[in-house]
Design goal:
mainly alpha; about 80% helix
């Protein structure tokens, strides 16, 4: 009976097709560029779902999608820095989640769009933090990512932009970012579960999105050609920008 009611609630959501479009585009871009899931999906989701539900649905389909590629990342990661990044997130995540449940949905939508557009600007211009990334800074970067994960579902920007200045090899940097984002997803889900924010309806939506997300990941990976990497990145940037701008509250 409860399950039937949950499915009825899911089907009654206005704009459910829009979530399918968002996850399809996010999976496609993730498949051929290696990034962009949250940057594309969250603006779509925030225009259809309440803030907490938007994040929960993404966690549900994104965690299984990342798990298969963890083994190689674990082999290449730098454990000490990864520990500092994760501790920082562990401390700051609850504050972000506290603000998430207090914020007006339109403020949430504006925040998601602005964060996505700022990161897009950094990606296009190639900006990176050029200062010294010491232990204290690593904790701080992890905390910034954790806070943004809680308040907007977008933990990546500070870690990607600042941690790229780390003296480690690029393989270790990529591995640390990948594992960090995965761990932040897990921590976010656990914090939300302990706080009672995990409802049946967004979980069902997230589970339903796993298959289309995986399918479009595969399609994106098949489409990718190494000799056309620059073209694919331009396409990814355009799709991220379109997702962020088209879902601004002022245009809804």
């Amino acid at each position: 009976m409860v399950l039937a009611e949950t499915f009825d609630q899911v089907l009654a959501i206005d704009g459910l097709y829009y979530l399918l479009l968002g996850v399809a585009v996010a999976g496609l871009v993730r498949g051929f560029s290696g990034f962009g899931t949250a940057l594309i999906y969250m603006p779509f989701a925030s225009s259809v779902l309440p803030p907490v539900w938007a994040i929960v649905t993404m966690l549900i389909f994104d965690i299984p999608g990342t798990t298969p590629i963890l083994r190689g990342a674990i082999k290449d990661c730098h454990p000490a820095d990864l520990r500092r990044l994760t501790i920082g997130a562990l401390v700051a995540l609850p504050l972000g989640l506290y603000l998430l449940v207090k914020v007006n949905p339109d403020v949430f939508r504006w925040s998601v769009a602005i964060i996505a557009l700022v990161l897009l600007l950094f990606l296009i211009t190639g900006w990176r933090y050029r200062g010294v990334l010491n232990r204290a800074m690593t904790y701080t970067v992890g905390a910034m990512g954790g806070f943004l994960a809680g308040v907007s579902g977008l933990p990546g920007p500070p870690v990607i932009m600042l941690y790229m200045s780390s003296p480690h090899a690029i393989t270790a940097i990529r591995a640390n970012i990948l594992i960090y984002l995965f761990l932040v997803d897990i921590l976010t889900f656990l914090y939300m579960a302990m706080a009672g924010y995990i409802a049946a309806t967004p979980v069902v939506i997230g589970v339903a999105l796993i298959i289309p997300y995986a399918v479009f990941n595969i399609i994106g990976a098949k489409l990718f050609r190494p000799d056309k990497e620059k073209l694919f990145r331009i396409i990814a940037y355009c799709l991220i920008g379109f997702s962020a701008v088209s879902n601004l509250p002022i245009l809804r």
